[in-house]
Write a structure and sequence with these properties.
Strand content: under 5%
Oligomer: single chain
Shape: flat
Radius of gyration: 32 Å
Number of helices: 11
Distance between the termini: 97 Å
Structural class: mainly alpha
Order of helices and strands: HHHHHHHHHHH
Helix content: over 70%
Number of strands: 0
């Protein structure tokens, strides 16, 4: 009788040599019988991996080219900017806009959402410089949409709001400012955007909503003394006006 404290033999724990040999023979037989199918499957997997690597490489190359192209557009805009409102620069500005718009039609979010967003931002800047507010609003809104996953979204929404304000489109401006604040990226002008919502609510005679907007400035950006102090002042003025 085996002592219960004794360890089982190695062969007992893992099967006999004969059993292991049988398993090995079975595997070899399976491979030999289905070797064609296995080779085809392995080849297909390898092909998929190669295609994925090639696709990623192509996409990366396209992104680099798109960013390089938009940086060149940006350089041209910087050169043109000082004289962009002059009549003699009108043709150059129109030509630059046409080239950038053609570029945006060829880009996709797969190649570079940043590049397309930046391209529309340049167009928005040109129209803003020329005070063509309807065209500027359209361009900035497109910049925000194209670059929604980048830091470009918040400033694009902000500039779209300014453009809408210049046209007297108060409700639309509030919408843009709200989207600006809701953007996931940090934006230094966010407290200014929130204050602008309160200011625009005042123009609509929506004093309660204006007070709430100003309170949001104070609670959200307590470190920004400029806009929080202005918000405090407006709250006091509105509460006196409403007889609180």
């Amino acid at each position: 009788m085996q002592n219960k404290n004794e360890k089982p033999a190695k062969g007992a724990a893992f099967g006999s040599v004969a059993d292991n040999a049988a398993v090995g023979d079975g595997i070899n037989e399976f491979i030999q019988r289905h070797r064609k199918e296995l080779f085809v499957s392995a080849g297909a997997i390898l092909l998929v991996l190669v295609l994925c690597i090639v696709a990623l490489s192509v996409m990366d190359t396209l992104r680099v080219r798109a960013i390089s192209a938009v940086e060149e557009f940006g350089s041209r805009y910087e050169t043109l900017s000082p004289s962009i409102t002059e009549e003699y620069s009108a043709n150059d500005a129109a030509e630059l806009i046409a080239e950038i718009e053609a570029f945006t039609k060829k880009t996709t979010t797969m190649t570079s959402g940043y590049a397309e967003g930046k391209a529309w931002s340049i167009i928005g800047s040109i129209h803003s410089d020329k005070k063509d507010w309807p065209a500027a609003e359209t361009a900035w809104a497109k910049a925000a949409e194209a670059g929604k996953k980048t830091y470009l979204a918040a400033p694009a929404f902000f500039n779209a709001a300014v453009s809408a304000e210049e046209q007297g489109k108060t409700e639309k401006a509030i919408e843009y400012y709200t989207n600006c604040i809701a953007s996931s990226a940090e934006f230094s002008a966010a407290p200014r955007a929130q204050f602008a919502i309160g200011r625009l609510r005042e123009t609509l005679r929506e004093n309660e909503a204006a007070i709430e907007a100003y309170r949001a400035v104070i609670s959200g950006w307590a470190y920004d003394k400029v806009w929080t102090n202005l918000a405090h002042s407006r709250i006091i003025a509105l509460e006196e006006e409403t007889g609180r």
